[in-house]
Design a protein that fits this description.
By secondary structure, the protein is an alpha/beta fold. It folds into two domains: 8-135 and 294-325, Aspartate/ornithine carbamoyltransferase (Rossmann fold), CATH 3.40.50; 136-293, Aspartate/ornithine carbamoyltransferase (Rossmann fold, 3-Layer(aba) Sandwich), CATH 3.40.50. It is built from twelve helices and nine strands. A five-stranded parallel β-sheet has the order 7-6-5-8-9, with helices on one face. A four-stranded parallel β-sheet has the order 2-1-3-4, with helices on both faces. α1 (13-30) packs across α11 and α5 crosses α6. The longest helix has 19 residues, at 291-309. It starts with 12 loop residues before the first helix and ends in a 7-residue tail after the last helix. The structure holds N-carbamoyl-L-aspartate. N-carbamoyl-L-aspartate binds at residues 55-56, 129, 135, 138, 176-177, 230, 232, 270-271. Catalyzes the condensation of carbamoyl phosphate and aspartate to form carbamoyl aspartate and inorganic phosphate, the committed step in the de novo pyrimidine nucleotide biosynthesis pathway. Pfam families: OTCace, OTCace_N. Belongs to the aspartate/ornithine carbamoyltransferase superfamily. ATCase family. It comes from Streptomyces pacificus. Pathway: Pyrimidine metabolism; UMP biosynthesis via de novo pathway; (S)-dihydroorotate from bicarbonate: step 2/3.
């Protein structure tokens, strides 16, 4: 694996399968009464969040703490960033404090890449979502959930998602989750179809390694998983569809539509969900919706990423002593 995790496109199939297998080992640790591993003891990880987040921020923090890292949380609101401080000066402040890894979420696409390649800091950089560009750990946790549900928990080790059909629905234009998933799922051998109104598809989507459709009802019966995306109003500076009702009618997932999916197929959502818009409460609360399971998998997957980036060349669990056995 590389030293940083900036984009899902940087991961080879072997990298991705190693992360997913390591995440399964981390999940087994979570079943123990004491959930902590000493793997990152003495290492410092900073969570640098310039954009709002609930799941990603909490799950990175839980992952870091379960690996025994020292954790520093930084939110741009309430920091000197509000006084006009630049990313460079913020980074140099962190460097002076001697951090080993920076987990960064930023509204500007490319900010994590800049941080990793600028020479401002020496730390490993993990992209926790940059603008409309990438959100690699989200795609890894989605693949973790997909592999568990579609391939099987134990039979899944060492396996990819070859031939599984994943349909991603909604605001593709503004979605870093969609971009990361298209890259990673393609690397893992899955077949991806994007479904969106033409106004919410990016220019050049025809060159992405996936199919594109405007017809949700036609895609549903052919899907092993349907991933619903939130309409990202905060990134919209124009009207992309006539009304919310019209959007929900054509691209929202309700109970009747869900019934068109094969029996084994799952509904995914990265959160936050806007109930009544892209997904009805009936679907969100159904046993087929994996939104909460994805969050749990997020902690295991982020533990695996941090462990592997910060020097884990050996299997995480079997070689590391747990707090229990010390
Ligand atoms: C997504 C994000 O921030 O990109 N959420 C997440 O990380 N769980 C998607 C969204 O905000 O709609």
């Amino acid at each position: 694996m590389k030293r940083h995790l900036i984009s899902a496109a940087d991961l080879t199939r072997d990298d991705a399968v190693l992360i997913l297998d390591t995440a399964e080992e981390m999940a087994r640790v979570a079943d123990r009464p004491i959930k902590k591993l000493p793997a990152l003891r003495g290492r410092t990880v900073v969570n640098l969040f310039f954009e709002d987040s609930t799941r990603t921020r909490i799950s990175f923090e839980a992952a870091e703490k379960r690996l025994s890292a020292d954790v520093i949380n930084f939110a741009a609101k309430g920091s000197s960033v509000s006084k006009g401080e630049s990313l460079k000066d913020t980074a140099q402040t962190l460097e002076a404090m001697g951090v080993d890894a920076v987990v960064i979420r930023h509204g500007a696409s490319g900010a994590p890449y800049r941080l990793a390649t600028s020479g401002w800091i020496d730390a490993a950089v993990v992209n926790a979502g940059d603008g409309t560009h990438q959100h690699p750990t989200q795609s890894l946790l989605d693949a973790f959930t997909l592999r568990r549900r579609l391939v099987g928990r134990d039979a899944g080790l060492g396996r990819d998602l070859a031939g599984r059909r994943v349909t991603i629905v909604g605001d593709i234009l503004h979605s870093r989750v969609a971009r990361s998933n298209v890259d990673l799922l393609h690397t893992l051998g899955a077949e991806v179809t994007l479904v969106a109104p033409p106004t919410l598809l990016p220019v050049g989507v025809g060159n992405w390694p996936c199919e594109v459709s405007y017809d949700l009802d036609a895609a549903l019966p052919k899907s092993d998983a349907v991933m619903m995306l939130r309409v990202q109003r905060e990134r919209m500076n124009a009207a992309f569809f006539p009304t919310e009702r019209e959007y929900a009618r054509r691209y929202g997932l309700d109970g009747d539509r869900m019934a068109k999916m094969p029996e084994h197929a799952i509904v995914m959502h990265p959160g936050p969900m806007v109930r009544g818009m892209e997904i009805t409460a009936e679907v969100a609360d159904s046993a087929r919706c994996t939104a909460v399971e994805q969050v749990a998998g997020g902690v295991h997957t982020r533990m695996a990423v941090l462990y592997l980036l910060l020097g884990g060349n050996e299997p995480a669990v079997s070689h590391a002593r747990t707090e229990e056995t010390k």
